[in-house]
Amino acid sequence: MTQNEASTLVLFGAKGNLARVKLIPGLFKLDLANKLHPNMKIVSVGRQEESHQDWLTNIQNIIRAKYGDKDLDASVLERFLNRNIYHANLPDDPEAFKKLSKRIIDEKLSQNLAFFLSVRPSDFANIIDDLAAAGMLDETNNWKRVLIEKPFGYDSQSAAELQTSIEKHLKETQIYRIDHYLGKFALQNILFTRFYNSFLEPIWNKHHIDHIQVTNHETLGVGDRTTFYNATGALRDMMQSHILQTLTLATMEKPTAFSPEDIRAEKIKLLNSIKQIPLDNFENNVFRAQYISGEIKNEGPVKGYLEELGEESLVETYAAVKLFIDNERWKDVPIYLRTAKRLHENATYISIKLKPQKIFNNEFSDNWIIISIQPKESIHIEMKTKVPGLDETKTRKIQLSGGIRMPEDETIDSYETLLLDLIEGNQSRFLHIDEVNAQWRLIDPIIEKWQDKNIPVHNYVAGSTDPIASKIIFENDDQFWRTSINIED
């Protein structure tokens, strides 16, 4: 369905890698799918002069590199090019933002303005200040929205300072904090899987679930991002954002309606019900490690983290945390979160272990439900059945697996979803400030505790499975790290 009102998307950082790889191709895909209003325009803002024709040539090259020439609809490409305007916001020009505002007015573009700040987090506040000074955030006659990329600070204090700086000019309903993971189809599908299937909801609680694991593993190392990563670490990079957000969708209560406001309200409620890590029993709840040299499948021998960094560091490339949710549904059910670089697999998934049931032959059931986010969107159930034959007690485990995506299904990139949400005003897949604060509230004490050099940083060989020592956080001896599943195409 085409949008019902015209708008203007103002893209800061238009010459950056994200714009080139994701945003411009994503906007073209939305146009191809007839999702954009006929009068919707895109103003790409850069820090250098460039002619209009050179910018259109640049866009054409981006589109052709992404989609090729064979199936490219020439009429849609022409329509998309006609939507685009390049504007140079020169960094040494004190009138730059007033000129940007005048350009939008002179071109008779819609004053419904969506600003996508694909820039360094340190630039967010200054750009918002300048937009406000130029009168571009006033909602008297038209809506104004601002999208900012994570990270939203690097701890509670910096997040609060960022919020203070931008809320001078913006209401919460105008702020779109993007976590691109929330645009992934498989993540969006978690709520539908839980609440649209009547056999799941009755068992989705402490009475039937032994524990839950949320996993994000990569075979990739830090690469050329050593400076960034050594100031961030696995906990800030993935746990504070993507993994906690995945957890909220897997454990939140059913919203009153599938509206942005109701979904956000339940997510916030869930995050605020998570107990703080007990600092007096820290090492049984939190684990960290670094990868050392090893071998990665299809890549060969690789260096260890400290070799890549070239100096000593306590920063973790593997983090595992045990949490408890203090509400009626999840009381005393352990939640295990883990993320790592240079492990044996590239995979993101949620593993739900059902409580074992003692059977008449003294065996115990071993049932799992696994929701795979990537690389393959799928749902996997493990259960026991009787082995055919004369032995009346012999059982075996069988696997019921299904890919969520069918060959004929439309493929949508997470940024395409989130761009459309921004333009349409759907905040359900963007973070409310209360979510940001709740997430930092959980992570800050861990980061602070890890400043203690007496807390060990364990090692694991690149390409290996989880460090054996990480099992210290498990509640019971029969719990173990669940590996992902593979479903054949």
Task: Give the low-confidence spans.
Answer: none
Number of domains: 2
Question: Could you say what the CATH topology of the largest domain is called?
Answer: Dihydrodipicolinate Reductase, domain 2
Rg of Cα set? 25 Å
Distance between the termini: 31 Å
Q: Can you give the helix content as a percent range?
A: 25-40%
Mean pLDDT: 90
- How many strands, what sense, and barrel or not for the largest sheet? 9 strands, mixed
Structural class: alpha/beta
CATH architecture annotation of the largest domain: 2-Layer Sandwich
Tell me, what's the shape? globular
Total helices: the number is 13
For CATH, the homologous superfamily of the largest domain is named as Dihydrodipicolinate Reductase, domain 2
Strand content: 15-25%
**What's the arrangement of strands in the largest beta sheet?**
16-15-14-13-7-12-11-8-18
- How many strands in all? 18
> CATH top level of the largest domain?
Alpha Beta
Description:
The protein has 489 residues and is of the alpha/beta class. The chain folds into two domains: 8-149, NAD(P)-binding Rossmann-like Domain (Rossmann fold, 3-Layer(aba) Sandwich), CATH 3.40.50; 182-410 and 431-473, Dihydrodipicolinate Reductase, domain 2. 32% of the residues lie in helices and 21% in strands. It has 13 helices and 18 strands. The chain has helices at residues 17-32, 52-67, 74-83, 96-106, 124-133, 156-166, 185-195, 226-230, 233-251, 260-272, 305-309, 414-424, 433-449, and strands at 8-12, 41-46, 84-88, 113-117, 144-149, 175-178, 209-217, 286-292, 294-296, 300-302, 318-323, 335-340, 347-354, 368-374, 378-386, 395-403, 430-431, 458-461. Helix 6 links the parallel strand 5 and strand 6. The longest helix has 19 residues, at 233-251. The radius of gyration is 25 Å and the shape is globular. The two termini are 31 Å apart.
